Write a sequence for this structure.
């Protein structure tokens, strides 16, 4: 699955040291002018928790996208 991130959202990715060798950026959820929650999926088939959300340097890992979305909604990051 190849996801294209809009050019205006690319700037958010520069704020994080993302492991783009092993993770694919799925979605960028802007939180302010400087920060965004970044949703990633592990490319490795053996990944225990393949879904991840990074926000301000902290990462949280999940078994499913549904579980990740529930967490993001609870944090108020999903509209």
């Amino acid at each position: 699955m190849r996801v294209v991130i809009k050019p205006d959202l690319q700037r958010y990715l520069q704020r994080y040291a993302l492991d783009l060798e092993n993770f694919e950026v799925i979605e960028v959820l802007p939180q302010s002018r400087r920060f965004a929650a970044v949703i990633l999926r592990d490319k490795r088939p053996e990944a225990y928790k393949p879904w991840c959300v990074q926000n301000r340097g902290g990462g949280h890992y999940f078994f499913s996208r549904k579980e990740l979305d529930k967490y993001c909604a609870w944090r108020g990051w999903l509209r």
